[in-house]
Predict the 3D structure of the following.
Amino acid sequence: MRIVTAGESHGKCLVGIIEGFPAHVPLDREQINYDLWRRQQGYGRGPRMAIEKDEIIILGGVRGGLTLGSPIAFQIKNRDYENWQGYLDPWGPIKSGREVEQPRPGHADLAGAVKYGFRDIRNVIERSSARETAVRVAVGSIAGQLLALFQIRAVSHVVSIGQVQLKERVSDFSALETADESVVRCVDPIVTEEMVQEIRRAEREGDSLGGIFEIRITGVPIGLGSYVHWDRKLDGKLAQALMSIQGIKGVEIGDGFQSAKNRGSQTHDPIFFSQEQGYYRLTNHCGGIEGGVSNGEDIVIRCAMKPIPTLTKPLETVNIRTKEPALAGVERSDTCAVP
Amino acid sequence: MRIVTAGESHGKCLVGIIEGFPAHVPLDREQINYDLWRRQQGYGRGPRMAIEKDEIIILGGVRGGLTLGSPIAFQIKNRDYENWQGYLDPWGPIKSGREVEQPRPGHADLAGAVKYGFRDIRNVIERSSARETAVRVAVGSIAGQLLALFQIRAVSHVVSIGQVQLKERVSDFSALETADESVVRCVDPIVTEEMVQEIRRAEREGDSLGGIFEIRITGVPIGLGSYVHWDRKLDGKLAQALMSIQGIKGVEIGDGFQSAKNRGSQTHDPIFFSQEQGYYRLTNHCGGIEGGVSNGEDIVIRCAMKPIPTLTKPLETVNIRTKEPALAGVERSDTCAVP
Amino acid sequence: MRIVTAGESHGKCLVGIIEGFPAHVPLDREQINYDLWRRQQGYGRGPRMAIEKDEIIILGGVRGGLTLGSPIAFQIKNRDYENWQGYLDPWGPIKSGREVEQPRPGHADLAGAVKYGFRDIRNVIERSSARETAVRVAVGSIAGQLLALFQIRAVSHVVSIGQVQLKERVSDFSALETADESVVRCVDPIVTEEMVQEIRRAEREGDSLGGIFEIRITGVPIGLGSYVHWDRKLDGKLAQALMSIQGIKGVEIGDGFQSAKNRGSQTHDPIFFSQEQGYYRLTNHCGGIEGGVSNGEDIVIRCAMKPIPTLTKPLETVNIRTKEPALAGVERSDTCAVP
Amino acid sequence: MRIVTAGESHGKCLVGIIEGFPAHVPLDREQINYDLWRRQQGYGRGPRMAIEKDEIIILGGVRGGLTLGSPIAFQIKNRDYENWQGYLDPWGPIKSGREVEQPRPGHADLAGAVKYGFRDIRNVIERSSARETAVRVAVGSIAGQLLALFQIRAVSHVVSIGQVQLKERVSDFSALETADESVVRCVDPIVTEEMVQEIRRAEREGDSLGGIFEIRITGVPIGLGSYVHWDRKLDGKLAQALMSIQGIKGVEIGDGFQSAKNRGSQTHDPIFFSQEQGYYRLTNHCGGIEGGVSNGEDIVIRCAMKPIPTLTKPLETVNIRTKEPALAGVERSDTCAVP
């Protein structure tokens, strides 16, 4: 299955093509739009989120709510495009006077401008923006509807924001599904309140915060991925997919970094068998993946997202034209798909 | 560039092909063999390490010490093969009586046997074994010799073993290169001694330990990887390559999981410019990658390795033939490429 | 560079994404639209061609007429969609009573219906239709504008239609560029007239014709493609790209099938050198590719297109629901990109 | 499934890795060696063929005659290596005085030397040599043993050599299997004799000949390949695989180039159905592939091979060092896998 995405943050639209998706899979448009809406929520979201109300428009590969086996193509319109057309029109002319020349630390701005030799960093910003994750959310929603046919379901929730963190690991899938009721997607109402305070504190100081979220996938059969070749290992593939999300700086599976501190006897999950359950475990330190293959337990992954680079106290930078010191622009980056 | 590997742990040999490698690159055989030897070192290595003394044998793609642009093929012989031939001969017959039926928790054993329907878990063990990393070390050594032509160099060192950890981040490249002098590859002699004690303690208790290692790559130009597509991002590619190594459960870049706890003002690296240095930073919280693109600073990555699953106190498991409870076999897994 | 296409023949639109295209390439919209228009010409085109007037709409990757290095996404609207919406709406409901149940010989109809288990062959027709080549023409036009920066240009012309064929090989590039002036894209006005007669004759008899076209690419440097690996060979890649076009049943390079009849001394092109020209040849039997690598001469390829399967005398087939004999439907397939 | 090959023509060995091959497939070593032996036969083969007696040596992925699901790695030794070691040793030193400086027309020699900047064309010859097809034959034999489990079998035979050709299309699979009894692999004994005379005639005149061979694959189910995306079409994939074989200049499926001359009513294969046979055809003009998908009939492909470029009357060329006119070297190229 190939996933190819395109589109600029303030261009006409975002586009995605899923090639290799099976035929006969029923898709629920409301579910996809709900997932897109969910991406746009989150405590303290910026003004861009108020402008965009993302909706999937299928361009190919789906007929009467069923996939055709043909490539699934879709677009998500950028409502903000009308304000930007003069600056981003594919065929031009491009109005001058609004070039971005001050790369924001923490973004691809400088590296992108140097790599491609751009004088207007807007060319980088438009594609490196976290708004691109809207396409990935739509792809994920469609893929999730395929997996749901096999009773494989995923949930995600926020484990920490700044210094505030959930005290205990919650492994009950239904409990985790309640996370959406929290403004910060934390399953614990008290910790939710602390997180909100933590965010307010940072805001007052013109600063920003990151956090850690956890993904739990249940219903996974034994045997997804394979140990036979390095690039077939399920943990490696998930690590790439997640680390490539804007703002992610760390990925761990199961006990992750903690397992490097624990003893072997605390880390490996003894194997049991019963007629009713087949093979099963009483623990899940390995996060559902052993040797690069799913072992039938829930897959559990945590990702660390760094604080949003846009601060009200702007960071020091350099003008790429004049090479003079400057303050990073206040381009409000669209924050990432906090799950 | 394509990297394809093959070979069983106790089969005739391991094999690798690097397709797409440029022509005219001088390769140093001693460097590759040194890197293979280095993989086999480490405090408390098992008896297998004493048997194997890995050496690269080039089968194609190199002539007179120069690459030809043709695919580079090589093998690394398994000296232990002569003891295993009757059990692993490609054409058989296979001696019976030594089938592995007790999957080891923490390995691909159970998932692999279920996925492929094997009755002898040896079929899984032989390929999922960490001995496969010998091929990756050879590939890495060859790739490193290409990168060295561009003054890009990598070093790795051990940051923690069990509960013992290096107190401070060491960012001086030359200092890190001294890590090989330590039996546990830690740059601090006092911490080295503590790590050795930690290992002895675990051993006495029939237990095992994992640890965290750090990779630092210096001389990286601005612009490797790209933000334009999710699967071109350098951080994602590195995460896959590292997470797919046997025993790795976590990967973080720069401040990684810590950056999820810090403020934005502590996390993003202000940009400066001087005629001599070009663009530069005074900090490197992002670990040399912003927006999926190298930013010219050192790339810094940490990986968490779980404890080796082979314990003298064996773990509970199940016989896959009888489905009766059992104790995990004492197959000594070849431990992974601790850097 | 990755080329991914999507879209149904009578759906909302066709979509393409070109991922990996370089930045800073100037694109000419008129050229792309001209190439799309050219695809729709040809003597004896069906009514569908009158409905559609294809135009590229860039969705991403281009700004002010310059590529951004970001994926180039585009769509081509199907004007006919409004007549089909009730039958092809992504979300439905789908009107019944117009299911296609009679697979047309010569199309993917039967194989597609069996492969995917469709009861309505429309699901196959919509994607297997030669209208998909509109996306490839747009991709080709964009790629051609990149190649033109390096003075690499391609032309194509019709060599034969049915039994009528051009008597002599024309190798002058400028002469070939005049082919567009012929209604059947043949460089010779007399042969053009004979071809038109040949088509009329077949039409009168309710039959259809195929033909052979030739592509000539000039300005090609020595060294495109490589002999080092089977899937890097330029001839193999071109053969796949061309054979995958709807209706193509044969591909040959240079003297092609004739070279299997000729002697070696008539087939290989002696090598010469002069200060002005560098290496050059006086003959080009090999069609510009030796050992899978371009040799600096014009690349010359011929492709055989079978007659359009839609005849006024319909072909025998079987109803896939009733399994009763039937006559193939008169669905007018959009004919392929005759060059 | 990935197929990666490596190895030089007179180097230590040829190497292949098949990654993604299923587990539990029984492999027959004698069949593979027979297929390798068969590659080396053929009327008028050169002296190299007498030196090499190819045999497969499995390096990984097979145990007791069964595949493991792990990558299958193998080597084929070059017996001639001992005579070449001083010139081709991976680590050198390389004896001087035997550099190849006169590129042979019809080979990758000149293009390869220019592309990679080699002064010794031996670096090109060693990899571009048709001896590389030995690896492909082994891969094909292994793949064929998998397909045989599904009753899919392939045969090939020679249709023409030079001007002499088989008069009629032979479509009986068993009859085609007798082709191996002919010294030139032609099913007709009289035509065989004419072909031998044709070869002798060319030899006497210091010239060489090419020919056309046909591949027939029987037992193919409906539905291999797909019309949904250009690079999933079975005809395109086969065309690439075949055109990338050394010496092949044309590929056609079914009636191929002839279908461009015939009428539609002669070209498309009407569809019938019976309870016993399911869907079937009485004709097979399309060669078993419609719309890029197998249609259940035999797949029939013809390939044109140009004459071997090595002539006793040497061709004109240029010395790449001196740029003086020269005669092409008499390096006997290993002729290709005539089927």
Q: What stands out?
A: Chain A touches chain C at residues 2, 4-8, 11-15, 17, 19, 23-24, 29, 58-65, 68-73, 75, 88-94, 116-118, 123, 126-127 (CB under 8 Å). Residues 133-148 of chain A form the longest helix (16 residues).
